[in-house]
Each structure stands twice: as structure tokens, then as C-alpha cells.
Amino acid sequence: MTTNPLPTGDGPLAGIRIFDLTRILAGPTLTQLLGDLGADVIKIERAGAGDDTRKWGPPFLTDPNGEDTTESAYFLCANRNKRSLTLDIAKPEGQALAKRLLRHCDVMVENFKVGGLDKYGLSYASLKDEFPSLVYCSITGFGQTGPYAPRAGYDFLAQGVGGIMSITGEPDGQPMKVGVGIADVMCGMYGAVAILAALRHRDSTASGDFKGVGQHIDMSLIDTQIAWLINEGLNYLVGGKVPTRLGNEHPNIVPYKAMPTSDGWIILAVGNDAQYQRFCKFAGRPELAEDPRFVTNADRVRNRVAIYEILDEVTKLKSQSDWVDGLAELGVPCSPVNDLKQVFDDPQVIHRGARVEMPHPLAGGNGTAPMLANPIRMSETPPVYNRAPPTCGQHTDEVLHSLLELSDDEIADLRAKDVI
């Protein structure tokens, strides 16, 4: 666990405010990233329910008595640096309040089904004339257009339709999804980049009292899923051959996979022929560097079955630490295959501060909730950790007081009408 104080205060996006009408993972990942960089994120939730992921447990954060709280680990993973405001946008008063809040916001992010916000007057088409400078980002499964646009979209579906499952898993096993919601996460990351670009465009078109030209950003899980097929996507488009599952093997590099040792597993990632020669010498099998089947990477790729039959037996002759430490000294990429306990106990991970603790009002123990640190490292404007993931509606009164200057009586009236 990091012992250094966490950066707080202003971040590089200070002064940018986000109206966050998203839930689950893709949208919250996006808005958390912007919040980490200093944006003021106002998370809109349903009163009494909140983001669906609040209930996605166990595990849940535990209170001082060791009992489960209302805060799931899943919710905590993507909702720090936000203020939670409960609002019923199905009510006309709620819609009016949303528009009043939007007057103070630079960005709106939503992940409703295509057309789902039309009936509330909160779609891009409904808002663009009234809010011409608003950057409006929509996240859906399949995009705003096309034959699949009306369909509900989830990470698992995107991984299936987008092809990643066809190349993930053992060759003779079933297609396999990635172990985390990576289509959601990558869509959120691409969306964050798009929003920053749109804000840059808005600012560059500002003139006088006009804040600049906003726009609609159409992000979809399927589009981003296909974009991050990366080399395998191009292998198919260039070579015309449909790739298949290779387990932990690499389609273009050999040896490059998880290998058994005498006491665990290592990842061997030999990236060039010089590294291969050093590996063979360290392994006590220098003749494998001269075998005409294996001299070059192209040779090894063509003869992957033969070389792995040999190397899987060779790597069993040393321990995991022998391979990792010995090959590291020779500049041959090699690492252990860690479980998550080993990950967070790793000295490099500890040094980099990958785990952080943030004070949380419901937390037991030392009163903090564990978080995964933002991986961005910037010398002048690092990510900030201003707010732990909020409880549902935690900041409703605060936001309505500070942004809209509503009185206590006005807020009480809205609450009595179940608008907030």
C-alpha cells in the first residue's frame, strides 16, 4: 500500500464540469478518468436505486462492525471523484432541473439506448439548439446508426460480435471472453479522448460571449472493440486468413507464451533472434539456436508446434525465480504469472503506488476504501483524488445549493415530490 499522500486539489481539467447520466462500466470509467484529471463530475442517479452496479456484489465495502454496506467493489472501481445527485428525469420537474444544471456544464455523457432520452427532452437533438456549446457523448452497444442500433449492448456481447472471443482461449477450447469488461473499459477510454478533443475544438471556436461549438460524440462498444483488435485485425485484412485461438501464444512471435517451470509458470516473450540466442544459451540448449527450423523468428513461427514441444520440457528444469531473475539479467523478457495477491505484493507494484486508499464515510477498519490508482503519471498536473466514490445522492443538496442556489425549502419541496 502506498504511504505517500495522495494528490488532491485542482487537476488539469479544473473548470470543466460533466453532467454524468451513465451507469454500469463504460460511461463511469470515462467520467472517472475525467474526474481524476480534475473535472467536476455530477453523477445523476435514481433515488432509492442508484447505479445498477451498487448492487453487484459481493464483495461489498464493510462498515466498522464488519457488516456489508451499500457500496459494492464493482461500483467503487469506476466512480471516484464524482458528486452523486439523485434526480427523476421521468418527471417534468426533473427534466427542467436537468436543463438548469446543464447550463453550468461543459459535457454531458449518457449511455441510454438509442432514442431513449427523446421522451425526456434530453437527447442531443433536443438540446443542441438550446446548448450549442455542449459536448454531448452517447455510449451504446452498437452506435446511433446501422441495423443493430436499437439493440441493447453489453460488454460480453461486444466481445462476441467484435471477434475478440474467437481469438481468445485454448485452440481446442470454447471461445473465451477477456476476464474483465475490456470492451466497456476501452470504449470509456476512447470516449474520454474524444471528449478532450471536442473540448479543444469548442474552445478554438469560441468568440466573445459565445463559448464555442459543441458536438455529438457517438461511441459504441462494437466500434471500439473492433478498433482494438489491432494486429490481429490487420493480420486478417492484409493476409485474408481468419485467425484462430492460440491460447497464450502470439500469432507472429515465437517463443511467446506461458511456459511451465518446476514450481509455477512464467511468461517468455522473446522479441527477436538475439534474445532467442541468449535464451538458448541460458537454458543450456545452445544447439536450438542453430537448428535450421528455429534460427529466425519466421522459422520459429512456421514450426511453433515443434519448438514448443521442446521448450515446454526445457523450462520445467528450472524454478520460476531462476528463469525470471536469470533472463532479466540477460535482457530476455520474462515474468512470473501472478495471482492478484502476488500482484499487489510485488515490490514494483508497491513502489508505483498502484493501490491507493481514500477516506470513505461508510468504511470500517482505518476508514478508507481501497482503490486502483490512475496509471497516468504527469510531472506537473498529476491525477487527483479529491472524492471517494459517493453514496447514492450524497451530494444532492450540495450541488443544488452551490450551482442553482436553491433554498432549503425549494430542495425540500422537490424531495417531497420525489423529483430528487
Topology diagram in text:
Elements (H helix, E strand, L loop, with lengths): L16 E5 L4 H11 L3 E6 L14 E3 L5 E5 H4 L5 E5 L5 H11 L4 E4 L13 H4 L7 E6 L14 H7 L20 H23 L10 E6 H7 L2 H10 L16 E5 L4 E5 L3 H10 L14 H6 L1 H11 L5 H10 L4 E3 L3 H6 L1 H6 L2 E5 L8 E5 L23 H9 L3 H9 L4
Helix pairs in contact: 1-6, 6-7
Describe this structure in words.
- By secondary structure, the chain is an alpha/beta fold.
- The chain folds into two domains: 17-228 and 352-416, Rossmann fold (3-Layer(aba) Sandwich), CATH 3.40.50; 256-345, formyl-coa transferase, domain 3.
- Helix content is 34%, strand content 15%.
- It has helices at 26-36, 73-76, 92-102, 124-127, 155-161, 182-204, 221-227, 230-239, 273-282, 297-302, 304-314, 320-329, 340-345, 347-352, 396-404, 408-416; strands at residues 17-21, 40-45, 60-62, 68-72, 82-86, 107-110, 135-140, 215-220, 256-260, 265-269, 334-336, 355-359, 368-372.
- The strands form four sheets. A six-stranded parallel beta sheet has the order 5-2-1-6-7-8, with helices on both faces.
